[in-house]
């Protein structure tokens, strides 16, 4: 994969906490416009890798490049400014705030904070800017089909709807690359189907590159362009979904060695 087509490059990333090595020399690239999945057993290092990409963790070794720029030392808010958005494995919504206000938080970093323009901006520009942000948020609300809960307090919603609102807040950033950490965890079949459809549309219609951690192998194999597999912090495989499903190391480490593994791909695995 050439540097010209890669929106993200992870180069030899290792991460250590005391005597525990969470990641060990992991390398992969994600192409602009790609829907890329990272899978592996619990404790394989998937979320640690997401944290290294988003800036919550700084790798012990290795580098992370985004759109050709070395972002290894940048804080999460700086990476957000560059176009990296993210959802979390554990919900991070403001329960006392409305759905609309939670999503508006995702636009906060885009608000101008330029005092050089002084009163002239605040007289005419601020209102126009606020209106544009509101329009963007309303488009996202319509897209994710949550208009009926736009005024509801986030803390009162079902788990599935809260996951959708968190996705909306990440999308509000209008990122070039969105990181989805178990976006379908805890959802029923219908909710998963809806979320899968939204992710595909974000990728294909909104032009967002996607990195997704997900345990539901049926979803991963159905919607991903390529898949990387981690096991004990090491990358043991990378390739097309069909290649991953037939990889002996993946079967041993993650899917099990059962010949019927493909038949059970739609079941959620630990």
Describe this structure in words.
By secondary structure, the protein is an alpha/beta fold. The chain folds into 2 domains: 1-83 and 177-270, Rossmann fold (3-Layer(aba) Sandwich), CATH 3.40.50; 92-174, no CATH class. 37% of the residues lie in helices and 23% in strands. It is built from 9 helices and 10 strands. It has helices spanning 46-54, 76-82, 99-105, 118-143, 159-172, 189-204, 217-223, 241-245, 248-255, and strands spanning 6-17, 20-31, 35-39, 61-66, 69-70, 84-86, 177-181, 209-213, 226-231, 234-239. The strands form 2 sheets. A 6-stranded mixed β-sheet has the order 6-7-8-3-9-10, sandwiched between helices. Helix 6 (189-204) links the parallel strand 7 and strand 8. Helix 3 packs parallel to helix 5 (159-172). The longest helix is centred in the middle third of the chain and has 26 residues, at 118-143. The two termini are 31 Å apart.
Low-pLDDT ranges: 112-122, 258-270
- Assembly type: single chain
CATH superfamily of the largest domain: P-loop containing nucleotide triphosphate hydrolases
- Principal-axis shape equals globular
CATH topology of the largest domain: Rossmann fold
